[in-house]
Fold this sequence. Notes:
75% helix
Amino acid sequence: MASGTEIGRAQAEEAAQLQSFRQGAPEAFEAVFHRHHGVVFRWILRIVRDRGAAEDLTIETFFRVYKAHARFEPARGFEPWARTIATRVALDWMRSKHPEQPMAEGFFAAVSGREYTDPAILAEIRDKTALAFGRLPPKLRIAATLAVVEELPHKEVAEALGISIAAVKVRVFRALRRLRRDLEQMGIRL
């Protein structure tokens, strides 16, 4: 177990490293990349739900992080800042590619409040939900993915998207309303 002194020293080292990163030191960027790339990758994977795309988008995110180093504010913390950039990168990808994201098994249950156990019914619901979800505009899709599928707090989603908590709630509401309408048109009643 680390002592308070060791923790304080590690925090001071990280603060100095982040300050060096802000000033453009390449070795500081490399250290920041190694320390935080896993967190950024997992965040992007939660959004795009495609491992290969998440790997590419993580690199794109760190490229943008590197270019924006002078705008980094160490007091805000690196991970929230990087998550915001990563979210924008993922949103750009979603807009350009229009992928149909595979959905979590429990998404339909979360939307409808019902559980199904018949594999054939589950497969049909999963396919139709993925199709309807893929039709959502990217801004609604990303908010619904983070808030409903990943069950992240609205505050965290708002910070990542750079919008208010109220705006997150509106986007999730609109996404769910559109999903319900599309699923009903496909013969699935909620």
